[in-house]
């Protein structure tokens, strides 16, 4: 078994459409380090970059890792990661490890969004996934921030200052873009337009959650979970409290993969 200073380490790598994430944990399941990088055209290259970064932060070598597990869209594109697990299972595992009271996970990533139900053991019992349209994903927010001529962080700040969110009725990202342009031309307050965009995503999540059944407590993971405006919209539209999944919700999938690597190795 590979060890350094009599310690065993496990690594999870989440290769998403927009970002690659890696998390390294020790034998007790504690996070030793994590890293993020923009996805490249090659999942293998992305994995090498982000895992090397996490290894440097942990001050260990690749040979010190007992087991690697991959997840995300690019998980099957890395030749030296032999075990791959769905991101649904990994997000549930990661969230449950941080807060075992969570029963519903909302994961909004760059390319899709998911609502995951799990039981009191952290096992996935049902899920719904939106992967046919960019609406309700990180790509949607990227597109809309360009329409509003601001960064995504600035769009969040704008939305937080809204007093009467606009209703964005179109579900398709392209049509929603046209609707936003129309609202801007009418002179609608940009704060209310931004908030309306977050509300439109929240309504899509509400629709998915209705098919799964939402049980509190509810956590949100993925890169979009960093947006206070999105959390505010989810709480307003869904009528429930929504908690960010840990200090960095974006690494939850990688953390779950690392925990699965640890469990598989321990047996």
How would you explain this protein's 3D organization?
With 267 residues, this protein is α/β, with parallel strands linked by helices. It folds into two domains: 9-91 and 251-266, ATPase, nucleotide binding domain (Nucleotidyltransferase, domain 5); 103-245, Nucleotidyltransferase, domain 5 (2-Layer Sandwich), CATH 3.30.420. 41% of the residues lie in helices and 21% in strands. It has eight helices and ten strands. The chain has helices spanning 43-58, 87-98, 138-147, 152-160, 173-185, 190-212, 228-238, 252-266; strands at 9-15, 19-26, 31-38, 65-71, 83-84, 104-108, 113-118, 124-130, 218-221, 242-244. The strands form two sheets. Strands 3-2-1-4-5 form a five-stranded mixed sheet. The chain has a five-stranded mixed sheet with strand order 8-7-6-9-10, with helices on both faces. A hairpin with a 3-residue loop joins β1 and β2. α2 packs across α8. The longest helix has 23 residues, at 190-212.
Q: In a nutshell, what does this entry contain?
A:
The chain has 267 residues and is of the alpha/beta class.
What is the radius of gyration? 19 Å
Calculate the mean pLDDT score and round it.
92
> Span between N and C termini?
14 Å
Q: From N to C, what is the helix and strand string?
A: EEEHEEHEEEHHHHEHEH
CATH architecture label of the largest domain: 2-Layer Sandwich
Q: List the uncertain runs.
A: none
What is the CATH third-level topology name of the largest domain? Nucleotidyltransferase, domain 5
Structural class, from secondary structure content? alpha/beta
Number of strands: 10
Beta-strand portion reads 15-25%
Assembly level: single chain
């Amino acid at each position: 078994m590979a060890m350094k200073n009599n310690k065993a380490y496990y690594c999870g790598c989440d290769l998403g459409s927009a970002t690659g994430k890696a998390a390294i944990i020790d034998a007790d399941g504690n996070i030793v380090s994590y890293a993020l990088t923009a996805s490249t055209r090659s999942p293998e290259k992305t994995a090498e970059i982000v895992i090397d970064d996490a290894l440097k932060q942990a001050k260990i070598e690749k040979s010190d890792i007992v087991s690697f597990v991959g997840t995300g869209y690019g998980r099957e594109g890395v030749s030296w990661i032999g075990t791959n697990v769905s991101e649904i299972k990994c997000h549930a595992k990661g969230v449950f490890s941080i807060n075992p009271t969570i029963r519903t996970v909302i994961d909004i990533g760059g390319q899709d969004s998911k609502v995951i139900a799990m039981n009191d053991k952290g096992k996935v019992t049902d899920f719904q996934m939106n992967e046919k349209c960019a609406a309700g994903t990180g790509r949607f927010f990227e597109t809309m921030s360009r329409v509003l001529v601001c960064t995504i962080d600035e769009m969040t700040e704008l939305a937080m200052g809204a007093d009467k969110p606009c209703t964005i009725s179109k579900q398709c990202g392209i049509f929603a873009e046209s609707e936003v342009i129309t609202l801007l031309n009418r002179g609608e307050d940009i704060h209310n337009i931004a908030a309306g965009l977050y509300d439109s995503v929240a309504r899509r999540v509400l629709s998915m959650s209705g098919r799964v059944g939402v049980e509190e407590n509810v956590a949100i993971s993925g890169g979009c979970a960093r947006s206070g405006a999105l959390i505010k919209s989810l709480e307003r539209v869904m009528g429930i409290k929504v908690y960010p999944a840990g200090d960095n919700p974006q690494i939850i999938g990688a953390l779950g993969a690392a925990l699965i690597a640890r469990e598989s190795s321990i047996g």
